[in-house]
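SEQUENCE WITH STRUCTURE:
===
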Amino acid sequence: MTDAELVLLSLVAEGPQHGYQIQQAIDERGLREWTAIGFSSVYYVLNKLEHDGLLSSKLAPSERGPTRKVYQLTDAGRRILQTAIADLLSTPHDLGSDFVLGLANMHHLRPDQVRHALDAYESRLRSHVAELNRARSKRTHNPKIQPLAIRAIYDYSLRLALTELEWLAEFRQAWEAEAPPAAPSPRPFPAPVIRRGTPSPAHRLQRIPKPVVNRPAEPEADNAPPPEGASAESKADDA
């Protein structure tokens, strides 16, 4: 089950809702901050869940505008949702992450490259912590959201990020103690030479002379007038 499917099933499990109400709940609760669910994919996933028998729907009149399709959780959908949630809560994170793959292959980098990468990683972690704190303060004051669940989500994410920062500091200290001596950085590629006043490619194309096309001479007609400047003698001879 995908993140989007789990989110939509959990929202409909709170009571029958139409698509617009589900979109509002996603935005109000900030669910897109930790789940991969796009605005345009909500209706596609709802239709898929209905096709799989996890949701049912019926048309209901609305206060304004046309009737709307209201979704409701089926018994099969409730069982699937409960199984998925229990599985998520009982499964620790595994080691299959991009960062772990980078750690396993960092020996292919120069020491200065490793330092630069770890500096960037620490900077992003600290930005992530600041963003989590801002989002936690905003979401926990929303009366439509269960404050305990939201606090747990952000506290868990914050604790992971802060623990990772502590681990990173210890790792960097141990790595610096065993790092090979810094090698001279390779000579950078020379910068391209740009001459001032160099015409643009379009202007250079305009300066190229056009080829001269040698067309065959057209045959002269019998009664063609004599060329200008012809002598009177030649006119007389022709007569």
Remarks:
- Residues 191-213, 231-239 have pLDDT under 50 and may be disordered.
